[in-house]
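Letters spell out the chain; backbone shape is given numerically. Take this protein:
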Amino acid sequence: MTNTMAAGKRLVLTDICLAVFVFTIILFSFNPSLSWIPQGCACMVVGSFIFEVTRVEGFKFVMPLPLICYFCFIIYVSLSLIWTDQSVDMMFTLIQLFFISFIMVNIVNYQGHFRSITIGFLAALIVATIDLWGQMGSLVNTNEALRVTSFLGNPNTFAIALTIGMLLAMETLIKKPTTSGRSLGRFILKAACVLLLLLFSYEIVFLTGSRKAMLTVFMLGFMILFRYFLKVKFLQKIIIILIGTGILTELFFLLKESVFFKRLSNIFELLQGKSVNDGSLSERSNMMGDALKLWEAKPITGWGTDQFRYLTDYQTYSHNNFLELLSNNGLIGLILYYSIFIFMLIVAFKQLVSRKEAESHIGFFSVATLLIFIFWDIAHVSYYSKFHWVMLSIIMGITYYLKTKAQAGPPEAVVHT
């Protein structure tokens, strides 16, 4: 039996708690003294969901294949506790992420949408932007040494949150309405999404200074244009090429006006073998080299979860998810973790080419998100990132919903009275 939602049964309390939980992740989880707030909200999500679904006859929890892969990954990395006790905190974090991801997958699968997550995430980013305005007095930055962060403690983390906000705003913007006709409310929603896309892009380029996020702005813009390019007729394709070229060119010139453009250009100079005076790039390059050496010493099993920080002088992660997993958990850990993405991408590409608009839309959203996440992993450790697992949970939940809906149609849930 599939868990698609009956028209008259909504998880109102769960929706509210889920929106609040996502909201608090951005505002409080990066402050050690306030991290108990999102943890408490996560418990509220679990409690409210269990309370509401117990009133639905025949409800069954689902566990998609990618989530099973993550569970296997956790079991494998827990074996490192046999030879080191330094991984206990990390294991606790991974187990927490798995459990809340399991709940979110089932919420999205049951309801067939993730509006509450989108609302909570975008609302938190708006509050963070207002906080920046209050701190800076404006949203204009002319000091290349000043990289803003708001509540998130790190400008790169803030840039990641802003990019995820762009993905969620984009999904809402390009989603085809379920009813025909025009309405003022729909126009306001679309206009708000456009404004948020512009605002978040501006903050990424001109305020955070995050190189990978700046590149992602171009990457996302190209993917949106490419999607429309594939869907239209020949003459419209030419128009899209001309308009798209103009937009991306203008974005590049705007980027050159950023005080952080030099940070981005240093990457290309480094790739060309040129000498670059950039302490951050040099240190990260050294970290990745040391992670590679650790992996070469134990290529199959690695040294144990989170051991890179303890076996090197850096006292932090390697800033590359692939090398972090290889050095800590070996080839086995890397394969187990990225099997999550492989299975999700296979399904997402199938949805993308579907003739059903809803499936094609979610397929594009999933492919864009997953490719961006994989691209980020070159310069980011993400396997225990809350933001990543919120988005992965969305994709798993909505994909499972569409799959079961296509196979059996939406059966009604029976509500006890």
Residues 410-417 have pLDDT under 50 and may be disordered.
